Amino acid sequence: MEDQMANLRLTDFEFFRIILPGSSKTKLKLPYKFARELGDRELREARLRVAGEGRRPWDVKVFDDDVSGDVYLGRGWQEFARAHDLRDGHFLIFRYDGAAAFTVTVFDETMCRRDYRRHHDAAGTGSSSSSDSSDAAAAAAATAAAEGVGDVALSQFAVTLRQCNLEDKQAQYLNVPMEFQEAHEYARREKVVLRMRGEAWTVRLKHSRRERGQRTAFRYGWHRFCVDNGLAVGDTCFFRVLREGDLRRGGAADDHVLKVAVRKADGTTLE
């Protein structure tokens, strides 16, 4: 009974890891808090599945470091990382199901979520995996259509805040990833609405020319959003298109709404 209650408590437990330069390629450290929540229950094997991919899970060994007491994903992790082309700077979100399985969501150097469905090779995955992939793709497409978003992979991005994002009021800004701003025609918009915790903030966009094209940034109103939500350096913001807005009607930018969730540096979440 205690084990069942413990598993229920860990269901949908989430944490993130960042692939740092120089980090081990053969193992990945699990957060101390997650290892502590596991308690005395030994987790010796785990299954990893990339969100929306639909392929069979990857089997990975789990081990404890006898000296530090830290818990790691070991044998099998390197193969998983290679197969999914994980690189330095990639941001990974793990969701634990309470039964030795993790769903992994990957954000790459563009700060947008990777869409592995485009690279999925159906050969050798079996009919069940192929069916799962089709179902996941259909569900993602349905969600995107309902929200007026054309490409699920470009409907969201994540940014870990730096000091330049939190300067004095007149100097604060947040650059929007190029792929995201082009996908949603930010060059034709003047503002966006950020929604979090049941409230809304209007943020004006600043456009500037660069060698590689136009750059768009969150500018006026971004400071108020940060202050009102107590954001700090090291916090990670996740932006997802909630409503696209119709530019054909003159580009009512206030119709373009982004849902924001924040994972604080201490592991707590705002959304």
From TrEMBL:
Localization: Nucleus
CDD domains: B3_DNA (cd10017)
Cellular component terms per the entry's GO annotation: nucleus
InterPro entries recorded: B3_DNA-bd, DNA-bd_pseudobarrel_sf, REM_fam
Highest taxon of the lineage: Eukaryota
Keywords, comma-separated and alphabetical: DNA-binding, Nucleus, Transcription, Transcription regulation
Gene Ontology molecular function, alphabetical: DNA binding
Main location, first listed in the record: nucleus
Keyword Disulfide bond: no
This protein's record includes keyword Nucleus: yes
Ranges of residues in domain TF-B3: 13-110, 159-266
UniProt cross-references to PANTHER family, sorted A to Z: B3 DOMAIN-CONTAINING PROTEIN OS03G0212300 (PTHR31674:SF95), B3 DOMAIN-CONTAINING PROTEIN REM-LIKE 3-RELATED (PTHR31674)
Official protein name in the record: TF-B3 domain-containing protein
